[in-house]
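PROTEIN ENTRY
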Amino acid sequence: MAGDASKGLWVTLVSGFLAIAGIGAKGVADIYLERARLDSQLIIGALGSPSVESRQETLRLLVDARLIASEGTRQGLKQYFEGDAPREPPQVASFIQSGERVSLTPPSPSNADRTDIDLFVCGSARTSPVAERLVQDVHRTLADSGRYGRIVLKVWDGSLYRELPESELKGTATLIYDAGHGEEGELEGLRGLLEPVAALPPLRTVANAGRSTPWLLSLVVCPE
């Protein structure tokens, strides 16, 4: 987990410094504003890990390496990793963006022969705590079953996926499959796994109207 956090940290740093460099002659005020925004992004990124230790380690790195520009902010962050009884840094959800792809269960030799799952949250719900909990519960259910391959999380954005408008997905959990392909036979078992998930919207199945995706099932979670 710490490795993932470090990778995200450096991506944020590079992106932020490129943004600052691109300000050019706009003025000192713009540079300070962009630098403050970068500080916020770095801290939010550090607090996104589910591991308390990872959050503490990343905050310590930000402070010790003086990657946070504000001295006051650096001093305030020390309460989370210094002293005999440091405070536990809170976990802050880092919401998935449109077009982003987040690996929940990575591919591996042990799951290479299993059907993959694309787990979507509809665009209007991507920042919803309800949707976030649903995604976590659904992923845990799928992963614990040991029946599926890699699982990735994406946003069902109308500009990217035109097969079904969000208006038709609202208030449902929609399973999308390739009719006539082998994974169609897995739908009944998948429904049986998912139906007990608390607060899952009514589950329905829809044949894929887009490009064929053999050995892949998609689930779009779109709570009201």
